[in-house]
Amino acid sequence: MKNVAITVLFLMISTSCSGVKMITPNRKLAEKVDTSKLYKQPFLQKMNEVKEKFRQGRADVALKELTSMKEEGLSTAERSTRKNLIGVINFSKKNYESASKNFEEALALSKEDPGLESQVYLNLGSAYYKMNQNEKALATLSMAEYHNLQDNEAKKYHQLYALLSQQLGKKEQSLTALIRSLEDKKSIGDLKSEARYTQAEELFFKLTLTERSRLLEDFDSEKNLAVPYLAYKEAEIAFKENNKQKVQDYSTWIEKRYGDNSEIMNLMKNLGIRSENDNVKIDLRYIGIALPLSGDRKSLGERALSGIDVALEELAQDPTKKYRVEMKDTQGSAATAAFAVKDLIEVNNVSAVIGGLTPNSATKEYLEAKKHGVLFISLSPVFLPKEEKNHLLIEVPASIESQVNHLFSPKMIAKLGSRPAIIYPKNELGEAYANEFWRRSKKQNLDVTGLISYDRNATDFREPVKNILGIKFTREREEELAIVNDIANLEKNKSIKRIQNLQPQIDFDWVFVPALPKEVVQILPNFNYFDAFNLNYVGVPSWRSELMTNEGYRYGNVFFMDESLGTNETAFTQKFSAKFNKQPKFVETISYDSLKIVSTIIEAEPSMSTRQDLDLALAKKTSIQGESGLWKLDEDIWMKDMATFKIKRDGVEAL
């Protein structure tokens, strides 16, 4: 935990004197002070020279120049700045007692410059923290006016304040500081990807209802996205408790203060629709199905229908449970599919919709179902950010979130390492994987060492591989390249072996490659070409293919994630074979599973009579078992259990 505060002191290293750079206009200063008159130009120039030497790693030289400076002729603010910088350098050398002494002296001289004074308070608090004087550190920070700090300084101030408050058992102070440290987050996706937000939410809901309400009111005038999002979470809890008045109260409070935030307002709009669904009566066993029964995708739709047909026959064996289905032809068009879902909900009043046979169609169909607060069972992954999904979406094939959740599980991190990298295609699928990969790595504080995209239409994949291996001829490696080339020239007559100009910089433990097998077999050989051997690669379910089985083992340690498919014949495969004289494939299996999942949910609480009943029942469930796997509810979305496999010379091995 101690290393959290080490970076706090960077603020006086990376910026010029507080008198040089004015406080940003959006900061509300306690005092309006023209600090430019406090510092003379020769002094500023000298400080910049000293800081540059410090940045270059010449701390002793910088410190010597500062200590040898005469104070005669310096203004009070200049003397404070000098003492502060001496403290910063001593702090970097872990001379915390000397650093704190200089910060204390700087503080006594800093009153003329509010920005400098706040910086010194922050630095002094950091020094006390490093000396295990936590109460003194928190008291020091409490005297600082954080509004006078620049954005990056204020963020570090709040992080340290939160840490100290938590260690001293001051839970509300810690939570307030944590929330303020999230002030720079402008989207819900960015907010939720921060581990600090997860910590803030946990602390928030440990407070009493009165304490939570008071805290939200304390932020009444601050435009901090974490505040309305926490209020939305409160409204969501009220919805699950069927407290419509409380949902309305939170909605009014949020709209009054954050009505210009479209993300928050969309969340509240959807929650309002779901809240009104308590008036929408439904026949639980009346299911809507949207499939392409004409057009280019007709054969695919018919295959899906055959799986559903087997499920219907099974359900019909119990005469007390009369399931009906309403079919709509999507004609292979995403736009038509969305209208089909709309009709199924508004005209036919079905309880749930099965559809989304292709990814593009799945996204549009789900968004339409979401508008009405209706359960949607998707036969394809839905390419939307995690924040736009909820428990009313079940993706039967493993979603991107399910795959990345498995990828970053403790078991996988323990096996592969904590320094991941990713090479992904520049398309909708690749971007979806990359975004979730980045979000999850940030949340778990993992060090992503490479995030490289490639053009799917390319025929040469050396460039993205060179990028991730750090062997592009960047300025930082020009001198190394020159030396290597000199050696190569001396040896060029001794060997005809290809000479690799720069050795790869392997600063990652494994590479995630969410690409199709035909692209993978062109990408991975380039790592060996650039002398990066026996690396760890992790792929996606499509890697369970003949091409990867035949070629994958040649490239290193090649793993992929997929659903744990049983090899034994099941009741479904037997019934399907008897009915259609052939074995079911993937599409038939997930289609069968989709209707079985719906029936499992319904029969668990057959007394449900409204859309809201079904909504709340799903929100309270923790898991759903299907033919193709197990889903668990995590952060209000359904995650499918995954397994890991390794491609070996003699085939695929389950780990």
Describe the protein.
By secondary structure, this protein is of the alpha/beta class. It has 4 domains: 2-181, Serine Threonine Protein Phosphatase 5, Tetratricopeptide repeat (Alpha Horseshoe); 226-278; 286-398 and 570-621, Response regulator (Rossmann fold, 3-Layer(aba) Sandwich), CATH 3.40.50.2300; 402-470 and 505-562, Response regulator (Rossmann fold, 3-Layer(aba) Sandwich), CATH 3.40.50. It contains 29 helices and 15 strands. Strands 7-6-8-9-10-14-15 form a 7-stranded mixed β-sheet, with helices on both faces. α13 packs parallel to α15. The model is unreliable at 1-31, 473-485 and 490-500 (pLDDT under 50).
Topology:
Layout: H1 11-14, H2 41-55, H3 59-68, H4 76-92, H5 96-108, H6 114-130, H7 134-142, H8 151-167, H9 171-180, H10 188-192, H11 195-204, H12 209-218, H13 226-240, H14 244-258, H15 262-276, E1 286-291, H16 298-315, E2 324-329, H17 334-346, E3 352-355, H18 359-371, E4 375-378, E5 393-395, H19 400-407, H20 410-416, E6 420-425, H21 428-443, E7 450-454, H22 462-469, H23 478-491, E8 510-512, H24 517-523, H25 525-529, E9 536-539, H26 546-551, E10 557-562, H27 571-580, H28 586-604, H29 611-620, E11 623-625, E12 630-634, E13 637-640, E14 643-648, E15 651-654
Parallel strand pairs: 1-2, 1-3, 3-4, 4-5, 6-7, 6-8, 8-9, 9-10
Antiparallel strand pairs: 10-14, 11-12, 12-13, 14-15
Helix pairs in contact: 2-3, 2-4, 3-4, 4-5, 4-6, 5-6, 6-7, 6-8, 7-8, 8-9, 9-11, 13-14, 13-15, 14-15, 16-27, 16-28, 17-18, 19-21
